[in-house]
Structures
1.
Amino acid sequence: MFRPAEDESETAADPAESDGCSLPSALPSSAARAVDAAELHRGRSLLITFRAPTSGAYGRAFWLAYISLMLLMVAVSLMYRYADFITFLGGGELELGAVVGVGMIGSLAMRLAQGVGIDRYGPRQIWLGSTALFVVSMLGHLLVSRPNGIEIFVLQALYRTSVAGVFGAVFTFVIQQVPVSRMAEAVGMIGTASFVGMLIGPLIGDVISSGGAGGLATRTELDLLFLVAAGLGSASVVAAWFATSREVRPPPRRHVPIAPLLRRYRPGVLLAIGVVTGIALGMPATFLRTFAAELSINRLAPYFTVYAVTAIAARLATRRLTERLGIRGAILIGMSLLVVGVVSYLAVATESQLLLPALFTGAGQAILYPAVVAGGSAAFPARYRGVGTTLMLATIDLGTLSGAPLIGGIVHFGRMIGLPGYPMMFVCIAALLIVSTVFYAGTGRSADAGRAESEKSPNPAVVLKGAPVEATSSA
């Protein structure tokens, strides 16, 4: 990891702050070097530490992690029919938004705590514990009988917290295997497991909850959804156990409060982009079911099939987009696709027309999500990358937290004043995305101008225990 030379005395005085990696006198050329290019400063000498060599980004551990995440996402995708559960209990969009929004508070509150836990204890403990918590939250729904009782809010908080923990641990786990220049690629590739799960889950959900008279799900169908989700979560625990079986626990180190870390390493405007991303990407998972029901569309599988296939194809085709265009370029492309996707909902009247927003939104998420997460995480040094990753995921959660009640409120109160609820909501969300994209593009230009000016000077000298070595930066 790069550290400014001016901090060298601090590093020497506090070995607990180091990565716990010894520096051999001669490093093999094949060693995997975890270089934090974001910490390069013009005209300064730097001290580098290296991670132990890894077996490669796409080895045994990666594919077991992929299977674990895919199984969990099949289970999560069954919850795209959660609106049916709220409707069965007697609630509507307002109650749905409130339940999901309050549930996200638990996820948001746990994000930074999970990040510290990942950095102190390793991804394995957080990953396994979070997946087990997911199983408990699914089984707990079998006892819920009210749309506004305390139990449904608690279970939603447990559910959202568990999913947050899994994603934070998985992303950190794969990020640790690659250099900074390939972090977005690593997040993007493991993220395709989510889309595979999204492809399978709704198909299972449509089979289980076919919608009887009037298209309403029965209690037996809804309970079966939760039971199947719990079973898939249990299988995910097993895969995660083997994926992380060879993980080396981080060495003991002094606990560093989060606040100083956030003051020193801050992703800046990417935090706001993360919030807006959460609002836009959280909308289909929560409100697509009620929107489709308003149009007498009962099947969700065609939408999520197109969404997932498009996202997988886009993710594979653009997996190194950030290396060519940078984080800013990838984010602008992803945000633009989301704008088109949200606006295209206005043209939907049939099931086949619902595939158009699925196409654009799936492509937008495939490009935007890993760029936002990797861009924010790269602002932190390697030893705090768990905090950096979970911080960016927390901003996306904050978007879902604020977006769910906001969207539900727009639809509910829009109808009360005689306006079409869903069209008005789509216009509002599209406007928010457009304003955010323009703002980010402007701030990005200023940052790029400053970066271009700094690049006119020679590359910074980099030293490893006094011996100069060549530094490369992919920023």
2.
Amino acid sequence: MAAKEAIQLLLVTNSHEDVRSAERAAAKWGCMEYWQAVTLAEALKRVAADRFDIVLLSLSLPDSSGIETLIRFNRTMPSIPVIVLTDPHHNHVGSEALRHGALLHLVRGEFSSHMLAQCVRYVLERQRLAVQASGRMYA
């Protein structure tokens, strides 16, 4: 049986706390590799050049903030599932992000690395099932 391919996660944040959470999640899970982009511009270049299974996107970046960050990302790469990171005092933005295409939102500082790994698995499975269902609709 072939070894399972590692999940490729792009972490788009300038927060050291977010990076530590991703590092711990990758270490615990063992089949996840992550890369970091600090700005939206850098993230858009990375997803154009490399394959990523999922994106963890902060809405507080040096070159973009708020829901516009997600809208700009999705306009460029609509097929990549996105988990949005929101600040605790901007929790209402998470609901808005779901309306604009994010599959999940996490509040910064309120999740563990184990929870992050579980959320990544959940979003990827949800995306896989949605693609499978859409294929059956048009078959």
3.
Amino acid sequence: MAIKNQCVNCESYTSTDFCAITGVNLIYDGSHCPKCVKRSVNVNVNTRSSSTVVAGSNSSASASSGKQRHGCITAWFVVALIINLLGAIMYLFAKEIVTKGLPKFSNTMVVLFGIICAANVIFIVMLFQWKKIGFWGLAGTNIAAVMIYMCADSGVVYSLSGLAGIAVLYGILQIKKNNVRMWDHLE
């Protein structure tokens, strides 16, 4: 009697790794279902009988059980981090240049955008740390930016671009790695 893993979530069976040389089944402690990546439990199944060895935490199955984000998500976070960092510096320390390029913006609005960019940097770092509050913080700063654009009478399309940013961010967080969306990993 060998042991297979039964997924707690979808109840499908995943096979154990069988070593053809030693005739030993390797059962990974804390393995996960490849279909839904939820925790599996070991159950006895009538198959070829052989001895069983439990592999430690250095196995590839338990290494993949940790949180992982897709490369596209990481790239987006890095780009957003750089843009917001540069934006914060520009809005807070080069106000004269910004107000020349955006004459409808008062000094107060420019400072507010600098604060929003600085807050965005903090929220992006929170997303890097798997904190869902980072998403909600970015959503809040985008809504605040929309309100500032509307106060500056920047036009409807320009004003509503911040709301599109929230939708794009939410869509990016839906990208899967190992059949799990990053959104599902956020705490």
4.
Amino acid sequence: RKVCGDAVMKLKIEKGKLISFFVRVKGPGGVRELRAVLDTGSQRCTISPVDARDLGYDCFFDPLANKGDGDLALMQSGIMEVGPLVIEEINVGDLRVANIEALAYELPKMSGVNMVLGLNFIENFKTSINFDEGYIIIEHMKTEDVENVENMEITKV
């Protein structure tokens, strides 16, 4: 995985609502703009199979025929085996991550969301959420930020 640039992005959010915004996703078949939701409870990014295929990814995964070849994912309906893929690039404004793992999984159509940005996206950035003032800031981590985090003591609870 590769993170590029040193951009900062500030987005307005509302308590009780999904943190969603548009992202540009690049694949072998082109670039698409998708509506994404930021989900700190998701380990990996998820993209709808239709959008993944439109971007040029082969994500026809039959869990019965390919048992044991997929990745296990905990979904609302239980544990499922889904097909993994590596997305060439995801851009949120001027923030960019290249070669990031994702799962092709059908997201609820009623949500209006085509993609979930999980922890494997978020961990590339310094992310601050301020619900009282109604904003989220996403920025590239500077070297000193990484060193400060690595040197912090962990508090036991």
